[in-house]
Write a structure and sequence with these properties.
about 180 residues; about 40% strand; Alpha-Beta Plaits; five-stranded antiparallel β-sheet; alpha+beta; about 25% helix
Length: about 180
C-alpha cells in the first residue's frame, strides 16, 4: 500500500473515527480486536453491524491516536483479510451518533426533576417502576457526555452507551482508503 494521505485533524486531536467496510465473515471482529490488543492500540469506542448489503458489515472504531499513530493503525487494519475499504472521518465533516440507556433511582420526590432533565435533552423515558426510571437518549457524543454528567447528580443504577457510529455528512467527499 502506498503512503496514506490523511486529512488534517479537526476536533479532538487525541481521538479519530475510523470506518472499516468488511466482508461479513465469522471471526473478523475477533481478529480486529486481537490486532488492537497485540499492537497496544487503545479503542475508545467500537460498534459493528451489517450494512444494507448483507455481504458487508461496517465497523466504526474510535481510536486514541495520542498513543498510536493513525497511519500505522490504518496500515495494520488493511493487513486483515476481508477488509474492503477504510475511511477516516473528521468530526466536523461527519455525523456522529451514540445511544445511552440508563436506569436511575427515581423516588417520587425526584421523579419530576429527572423527567425534566430527560425532556430538556430530548430523550425518552422507556421504562418505569415504583422507584426507578430507565431513560434513553441518542445524539452526538458531546450531548451524551453532557447528559451523563448531569445524570450523575442522581443515583445511577445501571448505564450503558452503545459506542459511536458515524457517516460522512451529505455532500462531503471523504477519501476512501483501499489496499493496493
Amino acid at each position: 500500500m502506498s503512503d496514506i494521505a490523511l486529512e488534517p485533524m479537526v476536533g479532538p486531536i487525541s481521538q479519530r473515527t475510523i470506518v472499516v467496510l468488511v466482508e461479513n465473515k465469522a471471526g473478523l471482529l475477533a481478529r480486529v480486536a486481537d490486532l488492537f490488543a497485540r499492537r497496544g492500540y487503545n479503542i475508545v469506542s467500537l460498534a459493528v453491524a451489517p450494512t444494507h448489503d448483507e455481504a458487508f458489515s461496517r465497523i466504526t472504531i474510535v481510536v486514541d491516536v495520542a498513543s498510536s499513530p493513525l497511519d500505522q493503525i490504518v496500515k495494520q487494519l488493511f493487513k486483515l483479510i476481508h477488509v474492503v475499504e477504510i475511511a477516516v472521518l473528521n468530526p466536523g465533516e461527519s455525523v456522529e451518533r451514540e445511544l445511552l440507556l440508563a436506569t436511575v433511582a427515581a423516588p417520587k420526590t425526584l421523579r419530576g426533576q429527572i423527567a425534566e432533565l430527560v425532556d430538556i435533552f430530548e430523550g425518552k423515558i422507556v421504562a418505569v417502576s415504583s422507584d426507578a426510571l430507565t431513560v434513553a437518549l441518542d445524539g452526538n457524543p458531546a450531548k451524551i457526555d453532557d447528559f451523563e454528567a448531569l445524570l450523575g447528580d442522581y443515583e445511577i443504577i445501571e448505564l450503558q452507551r452503545s459506542g459511536r457510529i458515524a457517516l460522512p455528512k451529505i455532500g462531503r467527499e471523504v477519501p476512501r482508503l483501499r489496499a493496493v
